[in-house]
Design goal:
By secondary structure, this protein is of the alpha/beta class. 33% of the residues lie in helices and 16% in strands. The chain contains eight helices and eight strands; from the N terminus they run βαβαβαβαβαβαβααβ. The protein has an eight-stranded parallel beta barrel with strand order 1-2-3-4-5-6-7-8, surrounded by four helices. Helix 5 links the parallel strand 5 and strand 6. The longest helix has 18 residues.
């Protein structure tokens, strides 16, 4: 798929941005305004020629699904410019409805992740995936099982990607990645990379599929503490635009996923 392909070193090829857009929360007290803002962001990303990446209940907060928003707002689906996140915190019925709608709406690219849970979200159970997957010794549903289910139930319909966390124990994370690729993943989006990371340097020449690096565009670096596995003081100085420039310089072959991008303050000044 064009939007997840690694860029060449030729800067004339353009910049491969994946722009994160968070859907409105289901308990929003200003839903009409939130829907309007979401639509404006979506159209802006489409017009820029970037890829819109729509999250799935980010941080465990129940939010509207990409498929619901596309239908409600009448949004145009450009398959090469749209990536929908899908996690394991759904009922079996809801998961099947989301996948069926993705197929009928023309959505072709999914990012399969285990996801963030909460008390309000029901997690898939191994028995939910029968008869599509063997359940022997399966204790929980992860992104690996979700990938296998997607491709078993909708063969040839979707291009699927997965997450990679360079802050996890290296051998363990590479083994998980191998299982994800065996399950059908054809591209990777990393957890946030701050300028450069040695595990990413090891990943790129060996993985054999496109890699998109997450650029953390919020100045609140301490919010990454859970991801990196150690505390980050709230007053830690951080320049998102400088980090973005460093990622472009250090990894010219990779696409960039812009997480928590400020549409009012940053969108117009990201390098084109």
């Amino acid at each position: 798929m064009p939007f997840v392909s690694n860029r060449s070193n030729d800067t004339s090829a353009g910049i491969n941005y994946h722009v994160e857009i968070l859907p409105p929360k289901q308990n929003s007290e200003k839903l009409d305004a939130d829907l309007e803002t979401f639509a404006e962001k979506y159209h802006r990303v489409m017009e820029s020629g970037y890829c819109a990446c729509i999250t799935d209940n980010a941080m465990g907060k129940a939010s509207f699904q990409a498929t619901e928003l596309i239908a409600e707002l009448g949004l145009e689906v450009r398959p090469e410019q749209l990536l929908v996140h899908l996690n394991t915190f759904h009922t079996k019925q809801a998961l099947d409805e989301i996948l069926d709608l993705c197929g009928s709406q023309g959505i072709r690219s999914l990012l399969a992740v285990t996801g963030d849970g909460s008390e309000r979200l029901t997690k898939l159970q191994p028995e939910d995936l029968e008869p599509h997957l063997p359940q022997a010794d399966l204790k929980s549903v992860t992104s690996v099982e979700l990938l296998r289910y997607i491709h078993a139930r909708h063969p040839g319909t979707f291009t699927t990607g997965v997450a990679f966390n360079p802050y996890e124990p290296e051998d363990h994370e590479f083994e998980k990645l191998r299982r994800k690729i065996d399950a059908g993943a054809t591209f990777i989006i990393t957890q946030p990379v701050i300028e450069q990371h040695p595990v990413v340097d090891k990943l790129l020449p060996t993985v054999g599929i496109p890699v998109v690096l997450e650029a953390w565009m919020s100045k609140k670096l301490h919010l990454l503490a859970d991801c990196v596995g150690y505390p980050i003081p709230e007053d830690t100085p951080y320049d998102p635009m400088a980090c973005l420039a460093a990622l472009r310089r250090n990894y010219p072959q990779c696409g960039l996923y812009l997480a928590l991008l400020g549409f009012k303050t940053q969108y117009d000044i990201i390098p084109r």
